[in-house]
Amino acid sequence: MQSSRERAGRAIPLLLATLAVLVAAFGVWTMALVLSYLVGWSPLVAGALLALAVVVGAALLRVRTRRRVAAR
After folding, report:
1. Which parts pass through the membrane (predicted)?
2. What is the pTM of this model?
């Protein structure tokens, strides 16, 4: 049987990860609203472009990290 301390040890990282995702989603949503206001696009289009930029940025960072590790 697991103690409450062991269960809390697993729950805290999950809680922090969930909080990080919510903060990131709120940030993207806020940036999409600001971008849609400044450029005059629909918030859906602005959000899709921001999400695409995040995915491309993450992919480029992953490639750069792999090259750096391979160069060692």
Report:
1. 12-38, 44-63
2. 0.55
Q: Could you tell me where the DSSP H helices lie in 1-72?
A: 4-39, 43-71
Our count of domains for the chain comes to 1
Residue 8 is predicted with a pLDDT of: 64
Contact 46, 39 (CB under 8 A): yes
Given a contact cutoff of 8 angstroms between Cβ atoms, the answer to whether 28 and 51 are in contact is yes
In our burial notation (b when 16+ CB lie closer than 10 A, e otherwise), range 20-48 reads eeeeeeeebeeebeebbeeeeeeeeebbe
Which residue range forms the structural domain that includes residue 67? 4-71
